[in-house]
């Protein structure tokens, strides 16, 4: 496992501060009840020397939806949020490198929903510009909760307890990632990404109602597929379809498009190039300022917005 980075700066209480200054009391709701919601963002070094955050506005909208569903106050305008994200990236980015940002809204005060106060925290970490290598995955014994239990649509850390358990289970069984099934024993997602499969030349992924986060990456891949005339379906997927798919990839802002070479020790035959071609298109889109990527770009050298 890669060691967690300790960056020099962090955004906390509406300011960029030294990392060690971001402190929360143990009695805060964020700690005691684990109450937060968050987003994982990725900024790519662009060919023109600017940094471009993929679909930042869509992440902001989903962030607000998570807060709304959890009844957490979210009092950051789009402009303030965008400035804050670029502020922490500017403080920590290195030329020619990519960076990922974890934006978390913590519940600082407010017992059982009364007199609530939240705070936005931004952490940013260096990432490699290498594309993800193929991985082997398994199917977890843990299940996704349903919409009326712990809605998978809400990106909150309580939803990731099962992801953590599945990850540990997978590590013990020699898998890099684990697919989590829903209560109907159909494919939901992995702990941190969506599942894309190809069968008979058609790309398929489960819809949100199967217990999946509303993924921004999947929408981008769907748009790329449609642009190329490749059929793309959102439909329930059985576990056994993972064992006979022609191609599989995991999709997410941070996992990008990660090829899967085997599921539960069943090799993916790889007799399709649809997802690998879409992966090439995805990386081109996020690094070359393609309008479909919805990049929020800034060039910190001259501070002019592009
Ligand atoms: N499912 C889960 C559980 C995730 O954590 C993520 C990553 N945010 C995704 C799917 C993919 O979502 P997105 O493409 O918006 O990053």
Task: Give a verbal description of the structure.
It is built from seven helices and 16 strands. By secondary structure, it is an alpha+beta fold. A hairpin with a 5-residue loop joins strand 8 and strand 9 (187-190). The strands form three sheets. Strands 7, 8, 9, 10, 11, 12, 13, 14 and 15 form a nine-stranded mixed beta sheet that branches. Strands 6-5-3-4-16 form a five-stranded antiparallel beta sheet. It folds into two domains: 9-130, D-amino Acid Aminotransferase, Chain A, domain 1 (2-Layer Sandwich); 135-287, D-amino Acid Aminotransferase, subunit A, domain 2 (D-amino Acid Aminotransferase, Chain A, domain 2), CATH 3.20.10. It binds 4'-deoxy-4'-aminopyridoxal-5'-phosphate. The site of 4'-deoxy-4'-aminopyridoxal-5'-phosphate (PMP) has 13 residues, from helix 5 and strand 13.
Short key terms for the protein model shown above:
306 residues; alpha+beta; D-amino Acid Aminotransferase, Chain A, domain 1; D-amino Acid Aminotransferase, Chain A, domain 2; 2 domains; 31% strand; globular; binds 4'-deoxy-4'-aminopyridoxal-5'-phosphate
């Amino acid at each position: 496992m890669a060691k967690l980075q300790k960056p020099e700066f962090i955004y906390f209480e509406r300011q960029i501060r030294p990392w060690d200054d971001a402190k929360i009391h143990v009695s805060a709701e964020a700690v005691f009840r684990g109450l937060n919601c968050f987003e994982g963002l990725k900024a790519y070094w662009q060919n023109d020397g600017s940094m471009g955050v993929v679909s930042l506005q869509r992440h902001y909208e989903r962030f607000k939806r998570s807060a709304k569903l959890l009844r957490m106050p979210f009092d950051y305008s789009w402009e303030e949020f965008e400035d804050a994200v670029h502020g922490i990236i500017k403080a920590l980015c290195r030329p020619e490198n990519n960076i990922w940002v974890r934006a978390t809204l913590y519940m600082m005060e407010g017992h059982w929903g009364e007199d609530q106060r939240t705070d936005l925290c931004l952490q940013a970490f260096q990432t490699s510009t290498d594309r993800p290598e193929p991985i082997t995955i398994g199917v977890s014994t843990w299940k996704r909760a349903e919409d009326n239990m712990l809605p998978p649509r809400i990106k909150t850390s309580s939803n990731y307890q099962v992801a953590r358990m599945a990850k540990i289970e997978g590590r013990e069984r020699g898998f890099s990632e684990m697919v989590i099934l829903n209560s109907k024993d159909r494919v939901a997602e992995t702990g941190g990404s969506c599942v894309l499969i190809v069968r008979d030349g058609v790309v398929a992924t489960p819809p949100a109602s199967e217990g999946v986060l509303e993924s921004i990456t999947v929408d981008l891949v769907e748009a790329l597929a449609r642009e190329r005339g490749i059929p793309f379906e959102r439909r329930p997927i059985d576990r056994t379809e993972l064992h006979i798919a022609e191609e599989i990839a995991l999709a997410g802002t941070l996992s990008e498009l990660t090829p899967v070479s085997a599921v539960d020790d069943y090799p993916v035959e790889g007799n399709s190039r649809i997802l690998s071609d879409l992966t090439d298109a995805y990386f081109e889109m996020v690094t070359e300022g393609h309008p479909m990527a919805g990049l929020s770009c800034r060039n910190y050298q001259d501070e002019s917005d592009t």
